[in-house]
Amino acid sequence: MSEIGPELLQHMYESAATIRRFEQRAIEQYRIGNIRGYLHPYLGQEAIAVGSIAALEDDDYIVSTHRGHGHAIAKGHDPRQMMAELFGRETGYCHGRGGSMHVASRSVRNLGANGVVAGGLGIATGAALAIKQRGGSELVVAFCSDGSSANGMWHESLNLAAIWDLPVIFVLENNQYAVSTPIRDSARVEHLSSRAAGYGMPGLTVDGNDAAIVYGAMQEPIRRARAGEGPSLVECMTYRHGGHHVNDPGLYLPADELARWKARDPLIVLRDRLTRAGVDESAIAVIDARVEQLLEEAVEFATASPEPSVEELLAEVTAG
Amino acid sequence: MAKMKYREALRAALQEEMERDERVFVVGEGIGERGGSYKVTEGLLAQFGSSRVIDTPLSEAGFVGLGVGAAIAGQRPVVEMLFIDFLMLAMDQVVNQAAKYRFMSGGEGRVPLVIRTQGGAGNSLAGQHSQSLEALFYHVPGLKVVMPSTPHDAKGLLKAAIRDDDPVIFIEHKLLYMTDGEVADEPFVIPLGQAEIKRPGSDVTLVTWSHMVLKCLQAAEQLATEGISTEVIDLRTLVPMDVDTVLDSVRRTGHLVIAQEAVKRGGVGSDVAAMVAERAFESLRAPIVRVAGMNTVIPFNLALEKAMVPQVADIVAGVRSALGRSAEVTGVTVS
Predict the structure, then answer these.
(1) What beta strand segments (E) does chain A contain?
(2) Residue boundaries of the structural domains of chain A
(3) What is the ipTM of this complex?
(4) pLDDT tens digit string along B230-286?
(5) What is the CATH topology of the domain spanning A6-253+295-304?
(6) Which of B57, B71, B92 is closest, CB to CB, to A119?
(7) Active site residue B211
């Protein structure tokens, strides 16, 4: 594992805390009616986005999922414009056309969240092919889930990436539930990463609640991708801190199981690491305060932002 | 002008665009060494190499999705889908991904993707290799739909499709690949959204597209011997549609017949009829007639296949019926 110093740990902690508070504030705004539609919180999975993206360069791409706020924030999206998009406002990343499930931005090379499970994996392999054709050194991280691994698009995309040595890393967030279906009911293998062997690519399973471990696990896949040696599958074990979306109470999640995973909350794990690295409580408090302020600004910005105009609804589609 | 086959015209368009723009590449099943099932991409591998002429495994959703992603990331992919019937395997990628991306990203993302595919009956290929499914794509906002009928149009429209910044479903017809036609020598592009009057006439407007254009021209020839002057309009692109050319013609002729190979129910022809009824009703001197495929599965048996798809005689009967010249209407015309 490459060296993880206090600076990087603080960066990852701040990113994870921003995601945590973004989700909590978004849920609060949802409850009072400022956000509509579907909202899939990333609560409990923060370490995966933070650890994997911290290992990337700015010009690397990501492809995200329906549970995508964490990926976006970790990749550098501004929480203000993110919140505005969730509010459906003109100032949001997609001018209110996309909402929670479709946040994308060229500026941070996020090729987009996706409303269809496994639907974005082709976008990932395609972007990786584009990089290869241009002779670039960037790579693509394709976030996917245990649920997506049951979909044909997952199979086709991993296979295409493998046969063409595409610079893409499939980061599989195994939160163990596809909506309400537990992974034990949809796969016969102990580790989904073992399927990598079937495509001729390396696969590994790691603790997805520890950002430092995720960061470390990305190093060899990144080296491979940049060296033109092809894709890898990194399965990160994690757990949702609630239901599939904001209106799903998640009653199917066994209480003891949930409690066990909450005891290993990614933020607790990161705080422990910060403490062990010699970062004192006051430095952490400074970060927390900064995050709090940023999210307060995000909610204020979204609330004050204008609605998109109906007159411009037909822009961006083919008329006739 | 040079005489060229439809498939050669398509190849010339690909070749010229690949020479002009290194972001253009082709990807599909058996399109490299084999040159594609209809030999459209023959020779491209030798000229452009395997990074721009890419053979894929049988992963339709996977490689259409790959095309979407490469387009978003700045390349200009031309995906070849062997049969439009197989494009059904990739509908999420076409309908939910490619068609939506520009809109849902608030206009920041663009998907300059062309999906070249082919459809149509006529070779006894039965129900999963012969369909005319353009209405599925016509229905979805965010897609453009092109269906050329001649080598000249095929070349000019494919070049325009490749240069377009939006996803284009470019539908060829399996009976057209071996047809000949004059193609201009000098470089040209035919803008999307322009219909062409393939034969001027004054008594009736006959709107059609793709292979059915050839049958309509034969029907018009036959009708001329009866003293009926038929104006044949080839829509060429269904989205965007050149409705003005249709309306202008109907205002002159007062009669409208629409001929499509696709099944009648929910077809593009129905939409053309609706648009004319909405916008030029006062010009119509008789009810609109749709000549279309029967609402059934395309049969294997040759005689049944011919009966299922409109033939020249059906179009002739449809025009006569629109003009009130004959009460004789075939089963294909009314269903």
Answers:
(1) 61-63, 140-145, 168-174, 177-178, 181-182, 203-207, 232-237
(2) 6-253+295-304
(3) 0.95
(4) 999 999 999 999 999 999 999 999 999 999 999 999 999 999 999 999 999 999 999
(5) Rossmann fold (3.40.50)
(6) B92
(7) no
